[in-house]
Amino acid sequence: MSIVELSEANKIYRTGDQMVTALDKTSLALNLGELLLIIGPSGSGKTTLLSLLGCLINPTEGRLLVDGREVNTLSANAMAALRLNTIGFVFQQFNLLSPLTAEQNVAFPLKMQKLSSNEISRKTREALEKVKMTHRRKNLPRTLSGGEQQRIAIARALVTNPKIVLCDEPTASLDKDSLAIVMEELRLLAIDGKAVAVVTHDPRLQKYADRAVEVNNGKVIPLNKQSMDFGR
Ligand SMILES: Nc1ncnc2c1ncn2[C@@H]1O[C@H](COP(=O)(O)OP(=O)(O)OP(=O)(O)O)[C@@H](O)[C@H]1O
């Protein structure tokens, strides 16, 4: 079942009198229960596509439906609420808040949702258990390895039980072992029924994906499993 649907949607950035078509007209669905890889060269439009799927930007033309809601018609506040309740984000640089402990970072979105302290403790504990980081919950981010920080970032992304998890180069700063652990976590989220999309340059991620698309010069091209060779 699709949870995000782009139909004939494009993105044109205007700076001064310059226009850049970052994404050509695209129709793409992201389904619950799948891990979708988004690959392609630098500057091809991958982040723009992920930003559309994540309701961070509106399409210039065309439609974007997220969890049954037409995003173009939402106010900025309604878009922010949709992001907070429906979407979890994971970034290359983890983006953890450095003065906060691991568990305080995970609890942060729940505080924004204004849940009771009991609910916050319970959900935070469950999210930390899911990524097997309970034993490091009192640590500050700088005392954790890159892989551990990314697992905390994943716990923070899933603590609100979002239907959609979007990741921008989540393994780019990680070694081989941490990459495998992080991708296994993301794979489990898809098996759990969430829709997971991962932007990457990394050919090693292909084995974790159900489906892949390539973005090239603003065009989104579906890849079948056999052709997912990432140019090798
Ligand atoms: N806010 C913006 N204003 C103007 N142009 C932009 C903006 N954001 C992106 N672009 C342009 O849109 C095109 C696509 O950019 P995008 O960041 O989506 O590519 P990408 O595939 O994610 O690149 P990378 O892999 O290097 O992060 C590029 O030509 C970029 O310069």
Notes on the protein architecture:
This protein is of the alpha/beta class and 232 residues long. The protein has a single domain, classed as Rossmann fold (3-Layer(aba) Sandwich). Helix content is 31%, strand content 29%. It has six helices and ten strands, in the order βββαββαβαααβαβββ. The protein has helices at residues 46-53, 76-86, 102-112, 117-130, 146-158, 176-191; strands at residues 2-15, 18-31, 35-39, 61-66, 69-70, 87-91, 164-168, 195-199, 211-216, 219-223. The strands form two sheets. It has a six-stranded mixed sheet, with helices on both faces. It has a four-stranded antiparallel sheet with strand order 2-1-4-5, covered by helices on one side. A hairpin with a 2-residue loop joins strand 1 (2-15) and strand 2 (18-31). Helix 3 crosses helix 4 (117-130). The longest helix has 16 residues, at 176-191. It is globular and about 50 Å long. The mean pLDDT is 92. Bound molecules: adenosine-5'-triphosphate (ATP). Adenosine-5'-triphosphate binds at residues 13, 15, 20, 22, 40, 42-48.
